[in-house]
Design a protein that fits this description.
This protein is mainly α. 79% of the residues lie in helices and 0% in strands. The protein contains twelve helices and no strands. The two termini are 22 Å apart.
């Protein structure tokens, strides 16, 4: 179930990492997807701090009864929400879905006291602050590029930025792998501890490899509906804007990874694009699309928690039959 979630996460979230390079025609879609798949795989194998945060900061798996049912319920809910928003073409957050689902399942199974609210709130702070940081970084990077290249010929500049965007898209996909694949590693490690298969939150090598490969395979499928939303429906991107958005989001994602905090890569990338558009002119941003993304951002945690609670009740009933 965790690997299925990771596969869906690959084509749901990683679409964001390559949307800008496809929109500006810096990379053909198939090459962009292959590049993103390999860079996600590399990023996923590099860090484990976020996995340990997911595995231990929301609840203590050692103290939970029915820990395996809790994990199953959380994954069912997160997968359902991801598929619903993917079908609608809304770039919602797989991170929010997984964290909301795990919290909802734990509360339903063991009550509010079972949730480590100090750890949960620290995760929530990262999820809230990262889009703001991405918006500000995108705005600053775009302003800096406009200042440095204000006298350059647009045709030559676009050609050079398209070439540069191959590298910034790769960097963004790598940073995505450092954060998103670790969430699945964390939930598998949580299940291993809850099931008594290991006593610490150390992430085994086989877990890293399976999570990284699942996300890489999911990325290779591609999420075209979300690519269209992120790549064309927030702002009209040119190569300079694409480079700015890629750099801003990659730096923010990697920064939070180093802090061992999960972020919504979806909302980081979308926010960096909004910041880039605002730097060009406020009216360049299609704020109706932005409002839809923010609405999904607000709904994901409570809806996924509710879905997880219902899933837990259903699985518990099935286990008694």
């Amino acid at each position: 179930m965790a690997l299925a979630f990771d596969f869906i996460n690959g084509f749901h979230d990683t679409a964001n990492a390559i949307a800008t390079s496809i929109s500006t025609k810096a990379l053909p879609p198939r090459i962009a997807i292959v590049l993103a798949s390999f860079m996600n795989l590399a990023g996923a194998l590099t860090f484990t701090g976020v996995a340990q945060t997911i595995g231990g900061k929301i609840a203590n798996p050692v103290k939970l009864e029915n820990g395996m049912i809790i994990v199953m319920a959380a994954l069912i809910a997160a997968i359902l929400w991801n598929l619903i928003t993917w079908y609608m073409g809304i770039p919602s957050s797989s991170s929010h879905a997984l964290i909301g689902s795990l919290t909802g399942a734990v509360i339903t199974a063991a009550g509010l006291r079972a949730v480590n609210f100090t750890g949960f709130l620290s995760i929530l702070e990262g999820l809230v602050l990262s889009p703001l940081a991405a918006f500000a970084t995108g705005l600053l990077v775009m302003l800096l590029i406009r200042l440095v290249f204000r006298n350059a010929a647009p045709h030559k500049l676009n050609r050079r930025f398209r070439l540069l965007q191959v590298f910034t898209a790769a960097f963004q996909a790598f940073s995505h792998g450092t954060n998103d694949a670790q969430k699945t590693m964390g939930i598998i490690t949580f299940a291993l501890v809850a099931g008594g298969f290991q006593s610490t939150l150390h992430v085994p090598l086989w877990v890293k490899l399976l999570a990284a490969l699942s996300m890489g395979l999911g990325t290779s499928v591609g999420g075209w509906k979300i690519i269209r939303t992120v790549g064309t429906r927030i702002i009209k991107l040119d190569p300079g804007s694409g480079v700015s958005a890629d750099m801003a989001s990659a730096m923010v994602i990697l920064g939070f990874t180093l802090l061992k905090l999960p972020v919504s890569t979806t909302h980081v990338i979308s926010s960096s694009i909004m910041g880039v558009g605002t730097a060009r002119r406020f009216s360049a941003v299609r704020w109706g699309t932005a409002q839809t993304i923010v609405t999904a951002w607000l709904l994901t945690l409570p809806v996924s928690a509710l879905l997880a609670g219902l899933s837990y009740l259903f699985l518990s009933l099935c286990s008694r039959i």
